[in-house]
Amino acid sequence: DAGVTQSPTHLIKTRGQQVTLRCSPKSGHDTVSWYQQALGQGPQFIFQYYEEEERQRGNFPDRFSGHQFPNYSSELNVNALLLGDSALYLCASSSYSGGAYFGPGTRLTVL
Amino acid sequence: SQQGEEDPQALSIQEGENATMNCSYKTSINNLQWYRQNSGRGLVHLILIRSNEREKHSGRLRVTLDTSKKSSSLLITASRAADTASYFCATSFMGSGGSYIPTFGRGTSLIVHP
Q1: Is A68 touching B (CB cutoff 8 A)?
Q2: Of B85, B105, B101, B87, which is closest to residue B34 (Cα–Cα)?
Q3: How confident is the model at residue B1 (pLDDT cuts 50, 70, 90)?
Q4: Higher local confidence (pLDDT), A21 or B97
Q5: A61 burial type by CB count under 10 A (0-12 exposed, 13-18 middle, 19+ buried)
């Protein structure tokens, strides 16, 4: 069992650009959640996908969007990048009412 | 906010000592989870305790949950330098979309000196 995997590991972008981050869930999990973690802070919930639909959303602007594929993998897209979007982006997979298991994260730096 | 809050924010101990971290939350939960994070890397799931459980053990870890006080504690016994990390509690509640959403506090930074 490979657990939750994310790609890429690190990414450097410029303000105004767009970025796509990818996540593959743990085997047997059908729900994927995305979190943003700024330095020194706890992870903040962005949104959750289940059955290829956004089921729940946190307090993030529409610049943050996502997608879930039939194999349960997921993408996080961020448009019009701002300096404040620099953070560690974490993907978590889960099944109903079970624990959430996190991937290693993607470190995004916006210059 | 549903967010759990950990206390203390930082804890520094000697190897071999016990470390205790606390988490408080505000509303009813389905379960509570503890995670460890090393140097800004991914979160490692440690223990999940459900709202109808009071105590759970896993190796050197002991978690308690008091739903009447809306609090939980994580005890690490006989700490090791390798336990140095940030520890987060995450409370899960039913969101408007019908799913359980873990929400995190700011964490406790634990340093274990060899």
Answers
A1: no
A2: B87
A3: very low
A4: A21
A5: exposed
Phi and psi based region of residue A52 (left: phi greater than 0; alpha: psi -120 to 50; beta: remaining): left
Question: Quick check: A90 contacting B, CB < 8 Å?
Answer: yes
Neighbours of B83 (CB within 10 A): 19
A90: chain B residues, CB-CB within 8 Å: 42-43
pLDDT digits (tens, 9 = 90+) for B12-49: 999 999 999 999 998 888 889 999 999 878 899 999 99
Residue to test with chain B: of A46, A56, A93, most B Cβ within 10 A? A56
- Identify the CA nearest to A50 among candidates A65, A75, A32: A32
Q: CA-CA distances (angstroms) from residue B53 to B5, B22, B57, B66, B88?
A: 20, 17, 11, 9, 19
Residue A15 per-residue DSSP state = T
Q: How confident is the model at residue B96 (pLDDT cuts 50, 70, 90)?
A: low
CA of residue A26 relative to chain centroid, distance: 14
Distance CA A22, CA A105 (A): 10
Q: Are the beta carbons of A111 and A15 closer than 8 angstroms? A: yes
Show residues of chain A in contact with B44, CB under 8 Å. Answer: 102
Residue B113 C-alpha, separation from nearest chain A C-alpha, in angstroms: 21
Cα gap B102→A82, rounded to integer Å = 26
